[in-house]
Amino acid sequence: MPVTLDQTAADFDAAFDALISQKRETAADVNDAVHAILEDVRARGDAALIEYTQRFDRLALTPDRLAIAAEEVDAAVAEVPAAQMEALKVAAGRIADFHARQKPSDDRFTDAAGVVLGHRWTPVSAAGLYVPGGTASYPSSVLMNALPARVAGVERIVMVVPTPDGVLNPLVLAAARLAGVTEIYRIGGAQAVGALAYGTQTIAPVDKIVGPGNAYVAAAKRQVFGTVGIDMVAGPSEILVVADGQNDPAWIAADLLSQAEHDTAAQSILITDDKAFAADVARAVEAHLATLPRTAIAGESWARHGAIVTVPDLDAAVPLIDRIAPEHLELAVADPEALMARVRNAGAIFLGRHTPEAVGDYIAGPNHVLPTARSARFASGLSVLDFMKRTTIVGCTAEGLRTLAPHAIRLAEAEGLGAHALSLSIRLNLAAE
Amino acid sequence: MPVTLDQTAADFDAAFDALISQKRETAADVNDAVHAILEDVRARGDAALIEYTQRFDRLALTPDRLAIAAEEVDAAVAEVPAAQMEALKVAAGRIADFHARQKPSDDRFTDAAGVVLGHRWTPVSAAGLYVPGGTASYPSSVLMNALPARVAGVERIVMVVPTPDGVLNPLVLAAARLAGVTEIYRIGGAQAVGALAYGTQTIAPVDKIVGPGNAYVAAAKRQVFGTVGIDMVAGPSEILVVADGQNDPAWIAADLLSQAEHDTAAQSILITDDKAFAADVARAVEAHLATLPRTAIAGESWARHGAIVTVPDLDAAVPLIDRIAPEHLELAVADPEALMARVRNAGAIFLGRHTPEAVGDYIAGPNHVLPTARSARFASGLSVLDFMKRTTIVGCTAEGLRTLAPHAIRLAEAEGLGAHALSLSIRLNLAAE
Q: Which residues are catalytic (chains A, B) (predicted)?
């Protein structure tokens, strides 16, 4: 059974702090092993990739078979049932449409001193997308990671996906094709991250690497950060459902379990102002668990990390929401907009009783790569901006420089930076000052 | 003497690769020492801070003296010469004005299916600003790091600055006041980063930490990343000047030295299409070095990491610029806009013969915290966006969900996620499908 907290109880604050500080992940220390693999890929390139793929994926490759060829993708895509392909297309279209609105604007203006100022956005040239193999291989993740890159204008979108024993995942390849992935390699693990970061004889290096992976992949991304950009390293998924007593307990229970089924380290929390409803939801969770396919995972997550928090009224929930800073926040209340207006920290908000979080995982349009582990206090979900960079622009006329330089020279001198001051003063007709 | 490369030479590519791959920094491995300090601050709070400040800064503090009081700031500010204060004010005004234009817009719309979609930007609640003590204590950095936070709407802007032997830097405190810093503590090093990340009895924790520091500070920021957000960890400064033969060699030489004087690990590169001009610049650098105050640092940087690259024409410079991906790019050419339009990777661009990079360090308006070490391929300078986060929004009506859910259910089932599918299907009148 999950923990049940009552905000009016004397020990609430300590218990709530304990809940949100729970360390749910035990990250194995694989840094040394990963470092060795990365160095080996950097030094030996394709040969190292092929060796690790043989060892970890039981797959014998040659350099010319590192890439999954277009004909292989064709064949895999042909296997995807029509209804699934249609669903992928609808999802890809909606995700692309939503992200297209995120494209940032350039800015250029001339200020009162006659100085040209502005900024310009450009896409990164090449992005790498890590896709896990096996059971964690989600076509929806391919869409969510690749489409913002395509919308940003990235030319090379390079996917790596391990294919243990050589088995391809048709739906993943179909998603890659729909999302505009330009190259696909059948490699995984730290060695794939190394290939993307440093390049090999066959694989040209990229500028940015995104996508989820196991502990080795996460460690490898951290180690190559700086050589390339990386997305945030995601923790276990979370959902916070804020619900009044007017909801169907079975609906809310399903929502809580939709995160719990991801991972035994996932966390699902319900906040409600109705104690009887809270008890109904707890019962409904048990009832669903009796029938769901991933009941072992979902049940363990719910028992170990789940929580039901009762509050005297929904106003009291607001500071709790901001402290939790949830990845996903469902507001299943009568006036979700009013509640949302008072909330500050959440990766994504789902409004009202007919917006289960799962609609956002697949099809609504916004990205499902979102900040976990309370990082919604300072971080955002994946977006088009993650695949672009901004260059600022300054252009002075001789006259504009004459206006600004005296102040800049004073500051440079105060900081003891003589060449800075010289680079300004040498351009002035000092007699004219 | 710096290296001189000729793009038409047979061995150019290898020599150019070696130039841009130079490892200029030797980062001491201080991770274990930093880890111990952070854990100590987390466990003992103020007491640990006070102990480390005694040890490293030779300064005896009590909890009530951790903060630099408003009266101390008043007294320090009163010491700042009027011309310097005026220069700081002009700079602060221009930086705030430029950054105000970066404030992002919210978005909200209803799509064809009747689904409400959008995103909302909110500021982080509290930002920490690390300011180095001693000679690297730059008031311009205080403005550049604090003003974007203030423009973003951050409520608590918390500055930490070590004050070895208790000596305050009046100009730094004046900059903090002008920039809207709300709290200042006289602590530094890894212990200050720990205090900002975890909080102590006296210092409330922040959500994001920015600002430059030594190897200990950089390691501490990396270690607390995840608990809080951090800015990028900056490497040594760089400038790339692209200049035709119509420039005054003494001007361009001063620009090259303005980065070289920061640090012996800094890198200054000139690309020109005029070999005689290249030689003139090299001579002018030597002439300036004879008179500049920081000649030892600038001279060592120029000798070890400086480079002059000659190209047959400026078109040939474009791919070199993008491979260097410089932090600062000066285009001292007849038509800088045309050249800029063809360049993709640069942190900041300075247009024309009258725009020395130093004008951007202090007063132009754009941020001087910029991506180094080729990271302009994927990263941007500090901006208002670094102090805000985006929450995405989805709101379905019963009807809207009915439109989207069947596709989402198909994908959830294909991914084997039964509770995801259930959370959708349970809300549908399945008979109506």
A: 327-328
